Amino acid sequence: MRKPFIAGNWKMNMDSASSVALAAGLAKELENVETVDVAVCPPFVYTQSVSAALSASNIAVGAQDVYFEGKGAFTGEISCDMLKDTGCTYVLAGHSERRHVIGETDELINQKVTAAIDSGLLPILCVGELLEERQAEKTTEVVAEQVKKGLAGLCNERVQAVTIAYEPVWAIGTGLTATPEQAQEVHAMIRGLLAELYDEDIAQTLRIQYGGSAKPGNTAELMAQPDVDGLLVGGASLKVEDFAAMVKTVA
Ligand code: 13P
Description:
Strand order of the largest sheet: 1-2-3-4-5-6-7-8
Bound molecules: 1,3-dihydroxyacetonephosphate
Low-confidence stretches: none
Order of helices and strands: EHEHEHEHHEHHEHHEHEH
Helix content: 40-55%
Shape: globular
Structural class: alpha/beta
Number of helices: 11
Mean pLDDT: 97
CATH architecture: Alpha-Beta Barrel
Radius of gyration: 17 Å
CATH topology: TIM Barrel
Oligomer: single chain
């Protein structure tokens, strides 16, 4: 049985006061939730203060990105050890905004996933097709390629640290959510691919989150799909009442 996993991606939002207030509000609202894994991913500069605000809670902290090198002359980058040092457990890799706005490649994303696992962080590998790729019926091809390349070189044991987040790019921040059936179809394809790349046990163990305009009103129907194990939430994770309502719906 896969434990549901709801994560909030705050993206480039919040400031020092509002990030701590959001974290503290969630800690209070969700203090009795034990049946769902919950994480929030603040901007780098707030991971430490958010970790402190969540230290007595069961909400974990993640970062939105990481660099794969351990240390050195990489101006502007943040290492896995730095993330752990500020209280992070999880890290996103290959979010669509990093792929399509910043220009990250599958190869770079694979280096990040690998470095995260090596350091003991739990990576959330984000995958998803563009609208034109869906319209050209290339969703399976594009997403399968991103999964394969993102996980390249990981053995059966190490891959178990990974969560996959399927986020169709056309559904992110647009208010357009994939239908539960559209999400399920891609999640089932990813799980089948994991069985091919690894084995059936691993395919049944790894969690696959859906992301893209997930909100309180569509949480139940998305989570009712057999292969949707959680949500990666953008906009709706910035409000205590919305994010807490989503977690409670799942709990
Ligand atoms: P929205 O929930 O705002 O569509 O963002 C989804 C997302 O990109 C989460 O990583």
